[in-house]
Structures are given as C-alpha cells and as structure tokens.
Write a structure and sequence with these properties.
74% helix; mainly alpha; 171 residues
C-alpha cells in the first residue's frame, strides 16, 4: 500500500513531535515512519480505533477529530433514520438500536484505525516543514516540534466535552 506521507523527518524530529509520554509513544511513531519509508503501511492504530475523537484531541489532531465526530454523527443519524423508517416505533424498544450502534462504530472506527497513523505522521511532517521555515537552527526546530506535537490534557478534555455534548444533543 503506497502512502503519501512525507518521509523527510529525522528520527529526532519524530521523537520531538511524538513526545515522551506514558508508554513510549515516540518509539511507536518512529517505527511507523520507518515502515512508511520502506514502502510499507503505517499499520493499525488500536488507540485511535478505541478512542476515536478523544485520541485525535489528545494527539492535537483537532481537525481530524472534528471530522471524525462529524462522520460518526452523520452515519449514526442516517442509520437511525433508516431504522425508524423500517421498524417504526418498535425500534425504540428493540435491541436493533444496540446492534446498529455497534455496527456504525465498527464501520467508522475500523477504517479510521488504519488511517490514523498516516494522519498523525502527515501532521508531524507539516509541523516539521513549518518549523524549518521559521528557523534554520535544528535545536529550535526540535523545540517547536515538541510544543506542536506530543499530547494535550486540555485537548483531551475538549474532545471529551465535545463528544459528550454532541451525544447529549443528538439524543
């Protein structure tokens, strides 16, 4: 599988961008980038699959997180409309809602699990390119990448709040 993820990042840049967090994240993403550079696939990201929007906001992928939330909402609403159309009022008392909620989850999150690493690495490459434009000093580039990458508890809190708000408002 070919990928359009730029492979012009050094190991130090990936380490700086991924950050040193719980569980050795930087090793995970360096390994993924090396695999891409060799023409391989970025692989499946289990955390992105399980946590979706929250993983995106934790990893400072705000646009991707919003897009994922929107896709989940639209697909979920489409399935809900289809269920009501087919089953009428019986759908509310049916276990079909639980089953179809799980199907929607899988239909959206499995593909996302496969593209999440690509999205993260594209963001890293974009941040590195911008940091190199801002400064020719390699240490300054690494510091900029460390600030723009890594993880964010505030981002995670925002992602959780947004997810809860959308689900509460969506019924």
């Amino acid at each position: 599988m070919d990928s359009d993820v730029p492979t012009c990042l050094s190991r130090d840049e990936i380490h700086a961008f991924a950050g040193e967090g719980w569980g050795g994240y930087e090793r995970y993403y360096v390994g993924r980038l090396e695999r891409l550079a060799e023409g391989g696939a970025a692989g499946f990201n289990g955390a992105a699959f399980l946590f979706g929007t929250n993983w995106c906001f934790w990893r400072k992928l705000y646009r991707v997180g919003l897009l994922l939330l929107l896709v989940e909402l639209v697909v979920g609403l489409a399935v809900a409309v289809a269920l009501v159309t087919i089953m009428g009022d019986e759908v509310i008392e049916s276990s079909a809602v639980t089953l179809w909620t799980f199907v929607v989850f899988l239909a959206v999150r499995v593909p996302f699990g496969f593209i999440a690493n690509d999205q993260y690495l594209k963001r890293a490459a974009s941040a590195a390119e911008q940091a190199r434009v801002e400064s020719a000093d390699s240490e300054a580039v690494l510091q900029t990448l460390a600030r723009r990458g890594g993880t964010s508890l505030l981002g995670l809190a925002m992602g959780l709040a947004l997810s809860v708000a959308v689900r509460v408002l969506g019924g």
